[in-house]
Write a structure and sequence with these properties.
By secondary structure, the chain is α/β, with parallel strands linked by helices. It is about 25% helix and about 25% strand. It has helices at about 45-50, 80-85, 105-115, 130-140, 155-165, 190-210, 230-235, 280-285, 330-345, 370-380, 410-415, 440-445, and strands spanning about 5-10, 15, 30-35, 75, 90, 95-100, 120-125, 150, 170-175, 210-215, 235-240, 250-255, 265-270, 275, 295-300, 305-315, 325, 350-360, 390, 395, 400-405, 420-425, 435. Helix 4 (about 130-140) links the parallel strand 7 (about 120-125) and strand 8. Helix 9 packs across helix 10. The longest helix has 18 residues, at about 190-210. The chain starts with a strand and ends with a helix.
Length: about 450
């Protein structure tokens, strides 16, 4: 191939000879970036030669291999984060931390460095900030260990060579989108740069048994920026979620080769950095006032039960088309539940603007939140309250039936701990604490007063 340029889609990696507005492979708009193609050396491939050009692999008996979990782990100061990671940061592992700008990625990483540097050598590499900026954050967070080092670089070749030296037990790379390989002519952040830079760093980490944490940017849709192959290459993918301006922030593992993906760590930002929230249910309900449209949901964040307030507001619409808005809840699911309410009950919502808010900045992915959402809407529309000593959970089917909820026993235990008297939940739960609910209409008539 002659030296020239191609246009590569930054979403899927598909290449074109000329620029087009929409990628025909993944349908993404304006995602093509021009990249220079280096000329090939003209050597015959192994297929053309008719034989393999490699060498025989060195192999070991699987029975003699020491499992990864038997190796040492680097503990952070956050017990819940250690649990999310499967017990801490495993030596030789590569973790990818992604989150919105300003969410607190650099803050939590500096706090991790401060704890690990008490007993291990740590290197913080930044391609976005100067040494002075990082120093100010380190002083604010109390990271003053002699074993904490800093380097500013955007060269993945230099970073990989530094990791290969084996001088550090933990290396932080902030961020992968700022790195570039010398051998590739495209700009930092492109598919080829992110993929090859990630590969280079991962090989260096595995060769020297160095723990590496890479920071990744996200798109405006909230997904990890760059090629999907980067998530496949690393061992752990952590999502840092929440409202950057307040509320709780959560760290959950989307992928974890060394632990569960059902755990979650909950934090709140303070002037001294991120702090773990030991009892999120009590904090979320501390300022609650029992008004119409307010319902307490017993939900799960990973394996942790949490009680959270659902607020609904219904007003008469001033336009021909009613508005539906949800904060912390899927808008498509909300529209479905409104349709069920209109079809299976006597509520008329066609002329109502409906607003849903999950207090505390929480984002619900729990199907058992359906019943609480429906009861909050009914309470707001009718102007009636639900008893403040009740919690609610259960999935709502299209027929208006109340379906079972995952790990109901943990939800019930959390409600009892905070002093609630009863839970309105699926009839399949056999517990005296739970008032069985089979049908949505009957439940609304009986309990929304």
């Amino acid at each position: 191939m002659k030296s020239g340029s191609v246009f590569v889609c930054q979403q899927c990696g598909h290449s074109y000879r000329k620029w087009v507005g929409q990628c025909t492979n993944c349908s993404a708009w304006n995602s093509l970036v021009e990249q220079v193609v280096e000329p090939e050396l003209g050597k015959k491939s192994a297929i053309e030669k008719g034989k393999a050009s490699g060498k025989k692999l060195d192999f070991v008996k699987l029975k003699s291999v020491v499992p990864s979990d038997a190796k040492a782990r680097l503990k952070t100061e956050f017990d819940d984060l250690n649990t999310v990671l499967g017990g801490g940061i495993l030596m030789g592992s590569v973790s990818l931390l992604a989150g919105q700008p300003g969410i607190g990625k650099s803050t939590i990483l500096m706090q991790i460095c401060a704890e690990v540097a008490k007993e291990h050598d740590v290197l913080y590499i930044s391609g976005e900030e100067s040494a002075g900026q990082v120093k100010l954050r380190a002083e604010r967070l109390g990271a003053d260990s002699e074993r904490l080092n800093f380097a500013a670089s955007t060269s993945s070749n230099d970073i990989a060579k530094t990791i290969e030296s084996g001088e550090f037990d933990l290396v932080i790379v902030d961020s992968i989108q700022t790195l570039a390989m010398d051998e590739i002519a495209s700009a930092p952040g492109t598919v080829s740069q992110v993929t090859n830079s990630g590969n280079l760093i991962i090989r260096a980490a595995k060769a020297t048994d160095t723990a590496v944490v890479i920071v990744g940017h996200v798109t405006k849709e909230g997904t990890l920026a760059g090629p999907k192959v980067l998530e496949h290459l690393v061992d752990v993918v952590l999502n840092f979620e929440g409202d950057r301006y307040g509320g709780f922030k959560t760290v959950r593992a989307v992928k974890n080769r060394f632990g569960s993906t059902n755990e979650v760590a909950i934090f709140e930002m303070t002037s001294d950095g991120l702090k773990e929230v030991q009892n999120p249910s009590a904090a979320l309900l501390a300022e609650r006032t029992n008004t119409d449209g307010s319902v307490i949901l017993a939900t799960l964040e990973g394996n942790r039960p949490i009680l959270v307030e659902i607020q609904a507001l219904a007003t008469t619409t001033n336009f021909g088309y009613p508005k539906r808005t949800a904060s912390g809840f899927d808008i498509n699911r909300l529209n479905l539940l409104i349709a069920v309410l209109e079809r299976r009950t006597k509520l008329r919502l066609g002329d109502k603007d409906i607003f849903i808010n999950v207090v505390g900045g929480m984002k619900l992915n729990d199907s058992a939140a359906d019943l609480a959402i429906c009861m909050a809407i009914a309470s707001a529309v009718a102007g009636r309250k639900l008893d403040e000593k009740y919690v609610v959970f259960g999935e709502v089917g299209l027929g208006g039936e109340i379906r079972s909820a995952f790990r109901a026993d943990q939800r019930i235990a959390e409600a009892k701990k905070l002093g609630f008297l009863h839970a309105i939940g699926p009839a399949t739960v056999h517990d005296k604490f739970v008032i069985p609910a089979k049908d949505l209409r009957e439940t609304l008539i009986r309990y929304v007063k």
